[in-house]
Write a structure and sequence with these properties.
By secondary structure, the protein is of the alpha/beta class. The protein is 43% helix and 19% strand. The protein has 11 helices and 10 strands. It is globular, with a radius of gyration of 20 Å. It starts with a strand and ends in a 28-residue tail after the last helix. Bound molecules: 5'-O-[(R)-(carboxyoxy)(hydroxy)phosphoryl]adenosine (KG4) and zinc ion. Zinc ion binds next to helix 4.
């Protein structure tokens, strides 16, 4: 079954073609970084316009790469939420129009389910039940995966998402948007013990996260010494990154052990972070847990994960109608077979 996935929830325009829910024939991501960089973050209006301009070229490229035509597509899967309203609308309308034109089903996918299931595009992936840490620019959650399609939220951030913290700290340090990957690169030359940054909510059975205190601590360090340069900048990036990776991995592994899971998976843009991946490997081994990491290009936004999540939902018999609408706030745990659930 050939599934065409479309992702336009934020600042990446992406189209993918997936054969039988697993084999990636094309996975095209057109980034809008240049359009947003001078504003230091994503401007929703500009994101929508860019999706409008980029989506059809992106679709053409994906079809060419996969050597397929639209008439061969059996299922359309599109991110319907959560995300920026105007950005989502572009993808949803395109997917519905294609589905209507070719007489094929179209299914609305929750973006977080895409991140969570990205691991199933790897050669080996966990069978439910397992615990999933989804860490992106707008979200930081631990989900208990009871089955594909059935998720229970175990914990969330109480303030900033992990990616948001990376991006805000990068901004404080004068680094260009998007900041997460810049901090990751600079941190590789730094000493993670150089600055002692706080770890919030340290209680062993408190699984929620909090990153705003850490961000404030970095802001204080910058206010006291000015924006560091050279080795001091690398050290600050490494110390901040260590604090984020330390808390994420500690809480994730503790929750998995205490709740009786044998396997843990990561997903979302921050799961591309080199230190988070390294520390997760170390701590999962110490805790006797199986760890599953998607490759970095499948952690950041892409449409292959949306095609996969849509395919899986379709195979479970779940359906969207052509009344499908964008759902800017859509909680993954509310999905229960409807795409998206009615208001
Ligand atoms: O999943 P994603 O691509 O988009 C959202 O759904 O938000 O995640 C984007 C987030 C941004 O905050 C970005 O700075 C962060 O992931 N990110 C990273 C890295 N690559 C992307 N953060 C830390 N280290 C990285 N290597
Ligand atoms: Zn994302």
């Amino acid at each position: 079954m050939l599934t065409l996935g479309i992702e336009t929830s934020c600042d990446e325009t992406a189209v993918a073609l997936l054969q039988n829910g697993r084999e990636i024939l094309a996975d095209v991501v057109l980034t809008q970084v240049d359009a947003h960089q001078r504003f230091g973050g994503v401007v929703p209006e500009i994101a929508s316009r860019n999706h409008l301009q980029q989506l059809l070229p992106c679709l053409e490229t994906a079809l060419q790469k996969a050597q397929k035509t639209l008439s061969e597509v059996a299922l359309y899967a599109v991110t319907a939420g959560p995300g920026l309203q105007g950005a989502l609308l572009v993808g949803v309308l395109a997917a519905k129009t294609l589905a209507r034109t070719y007489g094929r089903p179209c299914i609305g996918v929750n973006h977080l389910e895409g991140h969570l299931l990205a691991i199933a595009l790897a050669e080996t992936f966990p069978k439910p039940p397992f615990l999933s840490l989804v860490v992106s620019g707008g979200h930081t959650h631990l989900f208990a995966v009871e089955a594909f399609g059935r998720y229970a939220k175990v914990a969330s951030t109480r303030d900033d998402a992990a990616g948001e913290a990376f991006d805000k700290v990068a901004r404080l340090l004068g680094l260009p948007y998007p900041g997460g990957v810049q901090v990751d690169v600079l941190a590789q030359k730094g000493n993670p013990q150089a600055f002692s940054f706080p770890r919030a909510l340290p209680g062993k059975s408190v699984y929620d996260f909090s990153f705003s205190g850490l961000k404030t601590a970095v802001a204080h360090a910058v206010a006291q010494r000015g924006i560091p340069t050279g080795q001091a900048l690398y050290d600050l990036c490494a110390s901040f990154q260590e604090a984020v990776a330390d808390v994420l991995t500690k809480k994730c592994m503790a929750a998995a052990k205490q709740l009786g899971f044998g396997a843990v998976a990561l997903g979302g843009g921050v799961a591309a972070n080199s230190r988070l991946r390294g520390l997760a490997v170390e701590r999962a081994a110490q805790a006797g847990l199986q760890l599953y990491l998607p490759k970095p290009s499948l952690c950041t936004d892409n449409a292959a994960m949306i095609a996969l999540a849509g395919y899986e939902a379709h195979m479970r018999g779940e359906r969207s109608t052509l009344a499908l609408d964008a759902r800017p706030t859509w909680h993954l745990e509310d999905t229960h077979g409807q795409h998206p659930p009615s208001h």
